[in-house]
Specification:
The protein is of the alpha+beta class. The protein is built from 5 helices and 9 strands; from the N terminus they run E-E-H-E-E-E-H-H-E-E-E-E-H-H. The protein folds into 2 domains: 134 residues, 3-Layer(aba) Sandwich (Trna Endonuclease, Chain: A, domain 1); 41 residues, no CATH class.
Length: 180
């Protein structure tokens, strides 16, 4: 099976890893309306990234990377986790979702932590895990930030031509980057 939303293609890997059974049996599916396992994600049919599970509802997608041991988790670099989270955001956006999240689930850790910008949770917390989603649309986040910055009553921002041009250029670059 293939799902496409330019420039992304999601393909299912047919084999089931026995090491992933613990993750599957602990998933909280109460909030979602669909789930895919062993998903290979390609951008323009290159740059493969694998997600062990993708869950979604009408509003958001949750991408899961599962590590069956602390050793496998430690081998994942923070920078790579951050890159995968960015790819997850872009995939969610391409498929029309406004919200997303990417988590790493690890068998053998005791408490929540972070790797890069990704949340890391213990396998035993997955059963009751309800995702907190982030915006998949970075430009809207930036516009919201600008609106709150210029609308605040206490400590108002001094309007200058240079400042407004700088912030408009930043927004321009964000929009341009998405549409490459």
């Amino acid at each position: 099976m293939e799902l496409k939303a330019e420039p992304y293609t999601l393909k299912l890997r047919p084999d089931v890893q026995s090491s992933e059974q613990a993750m599957r049996s602990n998933l909280n599916l109460q909030w979602c309306s669909g789930v895919l396992f062993n998903v290979l994600a390609f951008k323009n049919m290159a740059n493969k990234v694998e997600f062990d599970a993708i869950l979604w509802n009408d509003e958001a997608m949750l991408f899961i990377e599962y590590k069956d041991s602390t050793t496998m988790y430690k081998n994942l670099e923070a920078k790579r986790a951050q890159q995968i989270k960015g790819i997850a955001r872009n995939i969610a956006r391409a498929f029309g979702f406004q919200k997303y999240n990417f988590i790493i689930v690890v068998n053998g850790i005791e408490q929540r932590t972070e790797k890069g910008t990704a949340i890391v949770i213990p396998l035993n917390e997955l059963t009751n895990y309800t995702p907190e989603f982030e915006s998949a649309i970075e430009e809207l986040d930036y516009v919201d930030w600008l609106l709150s910055k210029y609308d605040r009553k206490d400590n108002p921002v001094e309007f200058t031509r240079e400042l407004v041009l700088k912030e408009l250029r930043t927004l321009h670059d964000k929009i341009k980057q998405v549409n490459r």
